[in-house]
Design brief:
2 copies of one chain form a homodimer. By secondary structure, chain A is mainly α. Chain A has helices spanning 3-32, 43-50, 64-88, 93-110, 112-121, 128-148, 159-182, 188-208. Chain A contains 8 helices and no strands. The longest helix of chain A has 30 residues, at 3-32.
Chain lengths: 216, 216
DNA sequence: TCCGTAAGTGAACACGTGTGCACTCCACCA
DNA sequence: TGGTGGAGTGCACACGTGTTCACTTACGGA
């Protein structure tokens, strides 16, 4: 091979190696987080789980909080992907609820650790992690509000009211996610029951929309 | 004084002393909990704050978890008191929402630490504390469902649907509590805005009730 | 008055923690 | 081919942790 290709390949390799142990750290933290809150999670534990020595941690993050924020970003990416897929569904507003809930369910089961992390730490600790989550979630609620404005009955609602209902929906759905993650026993039937309830909640909210009077 | 009275008084006093440092421990924990999650809260910190030596802790609780559960019970007592007062309000269903929200607001501001503890630890740690909260909250939701059944339109709903709407309400109100506790800046105007949104959420839910079709 | 009982003390322990420092090693570029 | 920078190591330190044990002290019942 010529120098160019060699450079490229090797450059990728060294970067790749760093990226690999970075991933190992993130995965280790994510794994350990099933057992405790992020606040009581030690740097040494994480590095041990990742297979490196404690001091090597600082080659990737300057503190555990930074690791936490990285985890937030990562988790939010999968949360956004979930919403994007749910929104892309071309069905009528009649079937959109069922489809959305089912999409949510799939994504939750496919990325349990991410969802568990976000929902746990949303109100858990006090550090930068919670702030980051709060910020992202507020952003996400706003996006949902914009989305909602496209529906017929909601077109002439005030933005404040749109935010209100978006917030109600996000809160209800996050509660559903937690129910799914904490469900014991974890069988199909239990999941179905939770999803049915989630659907009902959404249907109840949509039922109210046509009767809503913007005044007051 | 005769022996009887002496016995009683002194007995009370010694009990009282023990109860006093028990309170000091609970208050110390409650105070420190503003800064971190219950999981990362050390026995030594709590005892130092309470003004006793670490080992004396065990005269009152056998572990931090036991202290945590005691805190849950205490907090739940104030939560129940809040609901009891809101329910006792004799107004029509038209004004009941505003009155309930205002009662909630008062109690939240009067017992910030209790509400902060419950809402934070609800999904925070993994220990017996979260389980205790989950249990109490489920109980509370059931009670609300029973209460709801007294309303005209809700009389012939299935219990499952009643639970669903009760759950929706509890979740929305706990979210409101957290908004109040995390509000920056903390002025009357901000509080009013949050309360107005909370009222709207409840009104939206009640609006849906008459159109609800129990089938499916 | 006297004594048991129990709240609170203080020293000690074995361990886990975050971080500093000098180091090896090797992929990479000139 | 030789040299550099950076990922990962190993040792060390100072400190915080939960829990043990023998102890002081004083309240309360006899």
């Amino acid at each position: 091979m010529n120098g160019r290709t060699l450079n490229l390949v090797t450059s990728v390799t060294r970067h790749e190696r760093k990226e690999r142990t970075r991933r190992a750290l993130l995965d280790a933290a994510l794994g350990l987080l099933a057992g405790t809150g992020f606040g009581s999670l030690s740097l040494r534990e994480v590095t041990k789980q990742a297979g490196i020595v404690p001091t090597a941690f600082y080659r990737h993050f300057s503190s555990m909080d930074e690791l936490g924020v990285a985890l937030v970003n990562e988790s939010m990416r999968t949360l956004r992907a979930t919403i994007r897929e749910a929104r892309r569904d071309p069905r009528s507003s009649a079937g959109i609820i069922g489809a959305s809930v089912r999409t949510l369910h799939e994504h939750v089961r496919a990325h349990e650790d991410h969802f568990l992390f976000v929902t746990r730490e949303r109100h858990g600790g006090a550090g930068p992690v919670r702030q980051a989550i709060a910020f992202e979630l507020k952003l996400l609620t706003s996006e949902l509000a914009v989305d909602l404005a496209r529906f017929r009955y909601l077109r002439d609602w005030t933005t404040e009211d749109l935010h209100m209902v978006a917030d109600l929906i996000v809160t209800a759905m996050l509660a559903t996610v937690l129910e799914l993650l904490e469900a014991r026993p974890r069988d199909t039937e239990t999941d179905e029951r939770i999803l049915r309830t989630a659907e009902k909640k959404l249907r109840l909210i949509t039922l109210a929309v046509p009767s809503w009077h913007p005044a007051t």
